[in-house]
Design goal:
The complex is a heterodimer of chains A (461) and B (276). With 461 residues, chain A is of the alpha/beta class. Chain A is 35% helix and 17% strand. Chain A has a five-stranded parallel β-sheet with strand order 3-2-1-4-16. A five-stranded parallel β-sheet of chain A has the order 6-14-7-8-9. Chain A is globular. Chain A starts with 5 loop residues before the first helix and ends with a helix. Chain B has 276 residues and is α/β, with parallel strands linked by helices. A seven-stranded antiparallel β-sheet of chain B has the order 6-1-2-5-4-3-7, with helices on both faces. In chain B, helix 5 runs parallel beside helix 6. The model of chain B has no long low-confidence stretch (mean pLDDT 96). Chains A and B meet through strand 5 and helix 13 of A and helix 1, strand 7, helix 8 and helix 9 of B.
Chain lengths: 461, 276
C-alpha cells in the first residue's frame, strides 16, 4: 500500500498510509477466493461477513460493501486502519500460507472511506428502528461504548452515552495519533452512530456528576461500563517527577486530543526537548515516539526491556518508527532519571538485561545484568509501560466485584455480579485493542437486550 | 454550551463569572473544582468552585488573569458561552464538627477558601478566616467571609489595607494564644508551604488544596502528580485536598513552573493577534 515518504511525513501529522484507490481495491478484491467456510470471519471479533463485502467491492457495488460491513461493525473506517489484522482475519486467510493473505483491512478502509466521501450523508446507514421506552446508559464513548450504543440503538433502545471528556472516541481520539487515525474520521463515525438515535453527553464524569444509583432513579434500566484502562503506570524510579517526564497518556492527550502540535494556534502546550526517550514496546510507545519525531526532536529512542521479538507493538508500527529514524535500545531498562537544580531532566541511567525464564505472560523474563549501567543523554522521557484501572467510577459502586488487579469481573457476555450492570473492554481485560473492546460492546448489547426482555417478562407475571 | 449569566471584574486582576451548568450545580460540594474549556482551541484548565445555585442551575467561579486561558475566560461577557465544563471533580472537603477551624486564603485562593469556611460554619465549627493580598486593590471576599466566620483577619504585603504582613504572621499569633483543631490553606504554593511549616512543629492538622497543572483531570494522565509522604498521588482524583505535612512543596513548585516559556509564547502570540 502506498504511504507518505518518511522524509516528508516526519514533518507533518498527516495520515501515513494512503489506502487503496479504486483500481488497487478492485485488483485486491479479485484475489479473494471467496472460501465457502470463510475462516477469516472466525478471526474477526466484530464477525464481519468478509467474503461478502469483498465480493461487493469486486463487483463495484461499493454501497452494498459498506452495508454488509456495517451490519456488524459500526466503526469500519477505524478498524480498517487500526486493527491488528495480521493477528486476526488475515492470519486466518487461506492465502496466508502462500505468504500473501488478502489485505482485508485496507479493503475495509476503502469501503468505509468511499462512503464518507458520498455527498448524501447517512445515505448508506442502517435504518433506525422505532425507539422503545427502555433507557440504557453506556458509560464511556470509546470504541466499546460506541459499538454497544450503536447496536442497542439499532435494536430500538433509548441509549445515552456518558463521556467524561469533551470529545468522543476514547483512545481513538486521545491515544492514537492523527497520522494513524485522522480525527475527522472518528468524528464522522460517531456522527453516524448519533444518526441511529444514540445520544452522547460530554463532560459527564459518572461517579462525580451523578452516580449509577442516581441514574437508576433517572429511569435507566441497564448499564454498560466501558471506561477503559486509563490510569498510567510509572516506573517508580528516582527522578520521575522531574519536568520533562510524561506518562504516554499525558503526552498523547496533549498532542492528539488537545492538538498541542498546533501550538500556539491551539493553546495546550507540550514540552519536547532535543533528545526523547520513550520507555516501552507497545503501540502506545510507537505512537509516542513518532509524535516526538514530528514535534521536532533531533533524537528519539525506544527503550525496551526485552528484545524486538517480544514487543507487543504491531510489526507495521515498529517498521514505521524505524523508517522515521527512531533508534531502538532493546534489553535496556531505566533505573534512574537525573535532573538539574531547576528540576529539568538531563540524563537517564539504564541497566542492560538478558532474557531469563518465561514469566506469567509466557515471554522470557528480563534479568538485569550486574554492573551494566549506562547513561543516556536525554531531556524528555515518555513512560509508555501500560495503564491500569481508573478507580474514580469504581470507588462509587462498592457492590461491584473487582478482580485482584482492580479490573471489573465480567464474563464473556459482559455480565457482572450486579444484575443491571454490564462491563467490557480494557476496564475488564486490562489494556488491549480497539477491536476487542468493540467485540465486548457487541456481546454486551446482546446480553443487555436478553436481560431487559427477561425483566419485562418477569414484571408482566 | 454554558452561558455566562453574570460577570464582574472584582479588581484589575480577577473576575467573577456565574455560568449556567445545571447538572454540575446539583452535584457540587465545597472543595470541588471544575475543568473549563472556553473555545475549540482552548486548554482544559481547572478552577475551584466558588459557589453554586441549584435553583438557578448555575455555578460561580473566581478567576485570576495569568495566561491565555484565564484571560480568555475573563474576556467573556454576560450572554457569551463557554464550550465545556466538566465536574464537579475531586473529593469534597470533609466537613463535620471539628471544633475550632482556621481558613486561610492567599490572593485568588481566598475565593476558594470561602466555600470551605461556609461549609465549616454551617457544620457548627468556630471559624477564623485569614486572608492575604499584595495590596488593597486586590482584596476580595471580605464581606462574604464575614458572613460565615467568627473573625476575619485581612493582611496586605504593603499594609495598604488591614494589617501589614503575611497570613502566617496572624496564624502564628492565633496558634500561640488558643487551641485550633484544623487549618485549611489555599493559595500560592509558597504560602501553603509557609503555613505547613508553621503548623507542623505545633502538630495542628493542616489541609491544603493543590493547584497542580491538569489536562484531563479524571485520573488518566498523571500530569498533576505530586510527591506525598514518599508516594505518588494525583491531585485530580486523590485530592485536591491533602495533608499539608506530607506534601513535597519543593517538587510541586518545580512542576508548576514547567510551562513558563510556553505560557509566555502563547501570550505573545495572542497579543500579536490583537486579543486581550
Amino acid at each position: 500500500m502506498r504511504e507518505q515518504d518518511p522524509k516528508d511525513r516526519i514533518k507533518n501529522f498527516n495520515e501515513v498510509p494512503y489506502g487503496y484507490n479504486e483500481e488497487e481495491a478492485l485488483k485486491e478484491a479479485a484475489r479473494c477466493l471467496q472460501c465457502k467456510n470463510a475462516p477469516c470471519i472466525g478471526g474477526c471479533p466484530a464477525e464481519v461477513d468478509i467474503p461478502g463485502f469483498i465480493k461487493a467491492i469486486k463487483e463495484k457495488r461499493f454501497k452494498d460493501a459498506i452495508s454488509v460491513i456495517k451490519k456488524t461493525n459500526s466503526l469500519p473506517a477505524v478498524c480498517g486502519r487500526v486493527c491488528p489484522q495480521e493477528d486476526q482475519c488475515e492470519k486466518a486467510c487461506v492465502l496466508m500460507k502462500a505468504g500473501r493473505p488478502i489485505d482485508i483491512g485496507t479493503l475495509e478502509r476503502f469501503a468505509a472511506d468511499w462512503e464518507m466521501r458520498q455527498a448524501v450523508s447517512g445515505g448508506t446507514s442502517d435504518e433506525r428502528r422505532a425507539t422503545n421506552d427502555e433507557k440504557v446508559a453506556v458509560i464511556g464513548a470509546g470504541p466499546g461504548g460506541l459499538t454497544c450504543a450503536a447496536d442497542l440503538a439499532m435494536m430500538g433502545y433509548n441509549v445515552t452515552v456518558f463521556e467524561a471528556l469533551h470529545k468522543p472516541g476514547g483512545v481513538l481520539t486521545y491515544g492514537i495519533p492523527e497520522f494513524r487515525l485522522p480525527k475527522r474520521i472518528v468524528e464522522k463515525e460517531v456522527e453516524n452512530i448519533g444518526k441511529l438515535g444514540a445520544e452522547i453527553k460530554y463532560n459527564y464524569v459518572i461517579g462525580r456528576i451523578k452516580t449509577i444509583d442516581a441514574l437508576r432513579k433517572d429511569g435507566f434500566k441497564a448499564f454498560f461500563i466501558c471506561t477503559g484502562a486509563g490510569l498510567p503506570y510509572f516506573l517508580g524510579i528516582e527522578g520521575e517527577n522531574f519536568n520533562g517526564v510524561y506518562s504516554a497518556n499525558e503526552f498523547l492527550t496533549r498532542v492528539n486530543l488537545m492538538k498541542a502540535y498546533k501550538f500556539p494556534e491551539y493553546d495546550t502546550p507540550v514540552n519536547i526537548g532535543g533528545k526523547v526517550a520513550v520507555i516501552g514496546g507497545g503501540n502506545v510507545a510507537m505512537d509516542a515516539a513518532r509524535c516526538a519525531v514530528r514535534l521536532g526532536a533531533e533524537k528519539v529512542y525506544i527503550v525496551y526491556r526485552r528484545t524486538e521479538d517480544e514487543m507487543p507493538a504491531r510489526i507495521e508500527e515498529v517498521h514505521h518508527a524505524k523508517q522515521e529514524g527512531i533508534e531502538f535500545h532493546i534489553l535496556a531498562n531505566p533505573v534512574k532519571i537525573m535532573g538539574d537544580a531547576s528540576g529539568e531532566v538531563k540524563k537517564m541511567v539504564c541497566i542492560k538485561n538478558r532474557l531469563g525464564e518465561p514469566d506469567a505472560s509466557g515471554r522470557r523474563r528480563p534479568v538485569p545484568i550486574e554492573d551494566s549501567e549506562f547513561e543516556m543523554d536525554v531531556d524528555t522521557v515518555v513512560v509508555a509501560i501500560g495503564n491500569g484501572p481508573n478507580p474514580l467510577l469504581l470507588d462509587t459502586i462498592k457492590e461491584l466485584k473487582l478482580n485482584k488487579w482492580g479490573y471489573i469481573e465480567a464474563d464473556e457476555d459482559g455480565r457482572t455480579n450486579v444484575k443491571d450492570v454490564f462491563a467490557g473492554g480494557d476496564i475488564v481485560t486490562g489494556a488491549a485493542t480497539v477491536i476487542a473492546a468493540m467485540g465486548a460492546g457487541k456481546h454486551a448489547a446482546r446480553s443487555i437486550d436478553k436481560y431487559l426482555k427477561n425483566e419485562k417478562i418477569k414484571t408482566k407475571k | 454550551m454554558h452561558e455566562v449569566i453574570r460577570k464582574e471584574h472584582l479588581n484589575n486582576e480577577m473576575c467573577l463569572l456565574e455560568i449556567r451548568a445545571e447538572d454540575v450545580a446539583r452535584a457540587a460540594r465545597a472543595g470541588q473544582f471544575v475543568v473549563l474549556r472556553v473555545d475549540e482551541q482552548g486548554e482544559r484548565f481547572p478552577l475551584t468552585l466558588y459557589d453554586w445555585d441549584t435553583g438557578k442551575g448555575t455555578i460561580t467561579i473566581v478567576c485570576q488573569m495569568v495566561g491565555v486561558s484565564t484571560r480568555k475566560l475573563c474576556a467573556l461577557k454576560t450572554g457569551d458561552s463557554l464550550l465545556d465544563i466538566a465536574g464537579p471533580l475531586g473529593h469534597a472537603t470533609g466537613t463535620g464538627n471539628m471544633g475550632r477551624v482556621i481558613c486561610i486564603g492567599g490572593g485568588v485562593g481566598t475565593a476558594e477558601a470561602y466555600p470551605i469556611a461556609r461549609a465549616m460554619k454551617q457544620a457548627g465549627n468556630h471559624v477564623t478566616s485569614i486572608t492575604g493580598f499584595r495590596n488593597k486593590g486586590l482584596v476580595i471576599c471580605e464581606e462574604e467571609l464575614k458572613s460565615f466566620s467568627d473573625d476575619v483577619h485581612v493582611t496586605t504585603d504593603d499594609g495598604s489595607y488591614g494589617r501589614k504582613g503575611f497570613v502566617t504572621d496572624v496564624l502564628k499569633e492565633l496558634l500561640k494564644d488558643a487551641k485550633f483543631d484544623m487549618v485549611f490553606a489555599i493559595g500560592p504554593v509558597p504560602m501553603m508551604k509557609a503555613v505547613a511549616d508553621v503548623t507542623r512543629p505545633m502538630g495542628v492538622k493542616t489541609l491544603v488544596s493543590l493547584n497542580s497543572i491538569m489536562v484531563d483531570a479524571t485520573g488518566m494522565c498523571g500530569c498533576c502528580r505530586i510527591k506525598y509522604g514518599g508516594e505518588t498521588k494525583f491531585a485530580c482524583v486523590d485530592g485536591p485536598e491533602f495533608d499539608a505535612h506530607l506534601v513535597d512543596f519543593e517538587d510541586l513548585a518545580h512542576r508548576q513552573g514547567r510551562y513558563k516559556d510556553k505560557e509566555k509564547e502563547a501570550l505573545d502570540h495572542h497579543c500579536r493577534l490583537g486579543r486581550h
